[in-house]
Specification:
205 residues, mainly alpha, DNA polymerase, domain 1, hpI Integrase, Chain A, 2 domains, three-stranded antiparallel β-sheet, 8 helices, 3 strands, 58% helix, elongated
Amino acid sequence: MYKSEFLDYLKYERRLSENTFAAYTNDLEQFFLFIEENFGPLAAPKEIKHTFIRSWVVQLMNNKLDNRSVNRKISTLKTYFKFLLKQNFLEINPMQKVVAPKTAKKLPTFLEENTTSKLFENDFFKDDFKGTLSKTIFDIFYSLGIRLSELINLKNSDIDYSNKTIKVLGKGNKVRLLPMSNELKIVLENFEKQKEAMSLASEFF
């Protein structure tokens, strides 16, 4: 079924994150387990009918899996069959006759302006290194709008003070340069000064 070739494609060409790669792998394993249990072992991908996939989707929904999770699994199969078509392992895509269940649109949540203003007040954060660290993290999130995983992976070498840019490693190992405001530049420079001061103090105590 060319599963190993597909997973190699995801890992080495698409360069998915570990969590996303694991999700794709689990979805594919669950699908083929369902196929084998309900329709017997198949010799080639062309034997997979759209009715097989629809049956799997129905089972997932009968098992009370939410529509968002079902659609993620359908997305995995779409990527898988597109890969097979591209590699000439398949001539007809069975996913063309599979309709994904609708998901309710989730309205975004946001902080009110007065609440955000209070977070920027100096007395909200303690006047120590931990407080400075918390404020720096908040300023980075507010200024750049990056993900938590992207913040965790930030290194000092990613910050270019002269050009006022920050290099961020995002999903799929995609790198992008984000502009750094003057306010954020000052915050980061002050944080670095405090960190250096703490490092020097620890050498004497």
